Amino acid sequence: MEQSSMRAVGWARSLPVSSGPKAARDWTREHLAALGWTRTAPDLVDSVLLTVSELVTNAHVHAHSPAQLILTWDEECLHVTVHDASPRLPEPRPPEEDAPGGRGLLLVSALADAWQTHRCPQGKDVIACFQPPRSATVA
């Protein structure tokens, strides 16, 4: 049997609606620091943190649900997954000029290398992938 050389590491945290996106950003920042990215790829860290904030906010505000935040690093891509209890998939929409919100998925689309959604038996997952520059992958 051939063994795969791929290694992966992951972290997960449940965030009740009362916790807010700051707790999600702080928790994510700690794990990105453990990967060495706060030092080697600070712009990427900012993009990941803004995406986490947007996705967790969407789970809390639109799904009225706790958010499960999962970070998975597979040595090529950081997968940021936010699960909530609503089966309704998000739909990017053009923001209204005077509206204070409505730009979250536009931001995610601009910041992440790719993003997608999946329905699950008890809600949905929104997944954003980030590929760091080669120089950032060596911690």
TrEMBL record:
InterPro entries in the cross-refs: Anti-sigma-factor_SerPK (IPR050267), HATPase_C_sf (IPR036890), HATPase_dom (IPR003594)
The root-end lineage is: Bacteria, Bacillati, Actinomycetota, Actinomycetes, Kitasatosporales
* Molecular function per GO: ATP binding; protein serine/threonine kinase activity
The organism is Streptomyces bungoensis
Keywords per UniProt: ATP-binding, Kinase, Nucleotide-binding, Serine/threonine-protein kinase, Transferase
Task: Determine if Transferase is one of this entry's keywords.
Answer: yes
Please give the Gene3D superfamilies that the UniProt record associates with this protein.
Histidine kinase-like ATPase, C-terminal domain (3.30.565.10)
Protein name listed in UniProt = ATP-binding protein
The record places domain Histidine kinase/HSP90-like ATPase at 23-129
